Amino acid sequence: MIHIQNLTQVFGKKVVLDDVQLEIGTNEVCALVGRNGAGKSTLLNSLLGLIPAKSGTITIHGVKQKSGKEIWKSGIAYLPEKFTLYPTLTGYENIAFFAKATTKQLDEAKIEGVLKSVRLWEDRDLPIKKYSKGMLQRLGLAITLYQDAKILILDEPTSGIDPIGRIEILEVLKTLKNKTILLSSHHLDEIKQVCTHVAFLENGKIEKYTVGQFLKIQRLGEMEA
Q1: How many CA atoms lie within 13 A of 105 on its CB side?
Q2: What is the pLDDT of residues 46-93, one digit of tens each?
Q3: Parallel/antiparallel/unpaired status of strands 197-202 and 29-33
Q4: What are φ and ψ of residue 37, in 5° steps?
Q5: Antiparallel, parallel or unpaired: β 2-11 and 55-60
Q6: Cβ contacts of 124-132, under 8 Å, gap ≥ 24
Q7: Distance between CA atoms of 120 and 211, rounded to whole angstroms?
Q8: Could you give the C-alpha distances from 220 to 148, 196, 214, in angstroms and in order?
Q9: How many CB atoms lie within 10 A of CB 83?
Q10: 60, 142, 144, 207: which one has the fewest Cβ atoms less than 10 Å from its Cβ?
């Protein structure tokens, strides 16, 4: 589904990604983990085609980014850590606005479905300036889900949310079926709950583990420390 081969990104004299290799299979839920400044955002932006690769290839849905085709973009939906919504509009109006912007037409049944899936249907007519941070994050996820993409890229989807809001987001993620998900996170508890694999980024390199393997390594590191 996602195949990264020999990806290198250099800014000035700093090598942020060094010959990175990563493969994420169909319906995997993979956490992208690394310290602040490790290059997680660079990797995500490279995947999205926002930063041209210095060298290497990125293949999504069997199509290389540099092939000139846009097919690879059609199956990806992205939820950034910080996103812009319209505070004077209601939750329904916000998702309708983005739906028209991305698909050129409005599917009211689909809007109802995604709002129900993130438990915001009852609050659909409330101006979002009255939403909590967790509600806003769930609305952002609903907008992402409306695109009905096979691949979801989520950048710190629980960032800045209180514990109850985090639980609500995680419960939504657990219900998603037939989705390949790459999410950046630094919360081991939520990785354990929703992810199947972990891509650990350190010193420009990535090692991929199952969640069980990664948690075992973390425990051993704590014991050795």
Answers
A1: 3
A2: 999 888 888 999 988 888 876 555 666 778 999 998 888 999 999 999
A3: parallel
A4: 85, 5
A5: antiparallel
A6: 124/90, 124/91, 124/92, 125/90, 125/91, 125/92, 126/90, 126/91, 127/87, 127/88, 127/89, 127/90, 128/85, 128/86, 128/87, 128/89, 128/90, 128/91, 128/94, 129/87, 129/88, 131/91, 132/165
A7: 31
A8: 40, 20, 10
A9: 15
A10: 207
Q: For 29, list phi and psi in degrees, rounded to 5.
A: -115, 105
pTM check: above 0.70: yes
Look up residue 202 and give its two tokens. 């350190």
Which residues in the chain show pLDDT less than 50? 223-225
Let me know how long the chain is.
Answer: 225
Give the separation between CA 152 and CA 131, rounded to whole angstroms. Answer: 24
